Structure formats: C-alpha cells, structure tokens
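thought: fold this chain, then report.
action: predict
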Amino acid sequence: MKRVEDNVVLVKGKAFALRIINLYRYLCEEKKEFVLSKQILRSGTSIGANAKEASLAQSKADFEAKLFISLKEAGETEYWLELLHESDYIDTPSFESIYSDNKELIKLLTSILKTSRSK
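observation:
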C-alpha cells in the first residue's frame, strides 16, 4: 500500500486546500467578502477530500467516481478563482499562482482518470 507522502494527488490536494483556507481568511478579514469566499472554501477543500476518499475506494468504479467528483470540484474552484480575480478581490500575481496550482490538479486528476479507464 502506498504511503500518503508517495501519493502526489493527496499531497498536492492537501497543500492546495491549505492555500484555499488562507485565501478564505484573507477574503473574510481583509476584503470583508463572505459569499464567494465560502463557495471557494467548500469547493477548494473538497478536491483533496474526495481524492483521499478515492484512495480508500472499495472498487475501481468507486475510485473513479470519487476522483471524478474531485475533478468537478477543481473545475468549480477554477470558476470561483476567475470570478474573484475579475471582480478585483484577488490581485493578478496571487490569482496566477493559485490558479496554476488548481490547473495542475485538474491535469493530474484528468490523467489518472484516463489511465484508470483505459485499464
């Protein structure tokens, strides 16, 4: 069985969730933004949580279903990040950094799902 430290999706998913939590705090404390921030907190932390569930799946179908949910949450997070940036709640350097991390998770999840489905 793989250790969590060896599972790239779990490591990156947790690191991303921590970034999202920090973004949430910033949005609430500094920008006094409470609606969009709650949305991105939910979707952004859900990516890693669903990947963790997938790592404990009971079957291949369960694994793929959980990873697909993780991918959908990453897509939703992408939308909220774009909205926050375009409405000037987050500046361009901050946006590009976290958006890039999210895109990396999307590519990783997509690749794993493609590989799993081709087996």
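thought: worth noting. The chain is about 80% helix and 0% strand.
final: tokens above.
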